[in-house]
Write a structure and sequence with these properties.
Radius of gyration: 23 Å
Number of strands: 4
Pfam family, one: TerB
Protein name: TerB family tellurite resistance protein
Distance between the termini: 61 Å
Shape: elongated
Oligomer: single chain
Order of helices and strands: EEEEHHHHHHH
């Protein structure tokens, strides 16, 4: 016997898309001729898809919906672009336009180089930032806040793609600076890419395809 204990939207692994769900708790009863008579303890909770009717463990709610995943990915690319620009490329028009193109591709359709430049200037003026250290502790925290929740839901190729986008922004105005390398190393760590693979990918980004 199920009792509804909440509802919402989730990514249904059976349907393969965003669906409404009910969170159910249940009590088992011994049935005699189809009539429940004796209690046999509690069961659940489970998540029931409103579309297909299947039941799943509540851990299915840890997976973001398609809409939420898209927003997380968009914010991650935006944060990485700002971090790389703040580490040394904000004065270069080429870097700004490369970053703006990456951010637009991620979903911020109205992003421009000038807009990113203004945001980088605002970050530099933020009293919470470590003066003279664009790759400092505050920036590392911002990157981890944007990337840590996303990383478990990305395939290895997806995590590498975000790092390579940051690398291309850094390389748009010349070789990596030490500050840019530090930022990209932080990006790799937040995306759970091992240091050897980070080194390999940064080297590959320097090689024209």
């Amino acid at each position: 016997m199920w009792t509804a204990a909440g509802d919402g939207e989730f990514f249904c692994p059976g349907c393969g898309g965003d669906r409404n769900y009910q969170r159910l708790t249940g009590r088992r009863r011994f049935a005699l001729v189809g009539v429940p008579v004796l209690p046999r303890g509690e069961t659940g909770p489970v998540v029931e898809c409103a579309a297909c009717g299947r039941h799943y463990g509540t851990d299915v709610l840890d997976h973001p919906t398609t809409t939420r995943f898209s927003a997380m990915l968009r914010d991650a690319v935006h944060t990485v672009a700002l971090a790389v620009l703040a580490a040394g490329g904000a004065c270069s028009r080429t870097s700004l336009e490369t970053a703006a193109a990456a951010v637009r591709s991620a979903g911020f359709d109205d992003c421009t180089g000038d807009g990113l430049s203004a945001l980088v200037d605002a970050l530099a003026a933020d009293t919470g930032r470590v003066s003279g250290e664009p790759g400092g502790a505050s920036l590392a925290i911002e990157l981890h806040e944007a990337l840590d929740p996303l990383a478990p839901h990305l395939a290895p190729a997806g995590r590498e793609s975000i790092l390579l986008q940051g690398a291309r922004i850094a390389l748009a105005d010349g070789p990596y600076t030490p500050a840019e390398r530090d930022v990209l190393a932080t990006v790799g760590a937040a995306l759970t890419i091992c240091s050897n693979d980070v080194t390999r990918l940064l080297a590959a980004a320097r090689t024209p395809s």
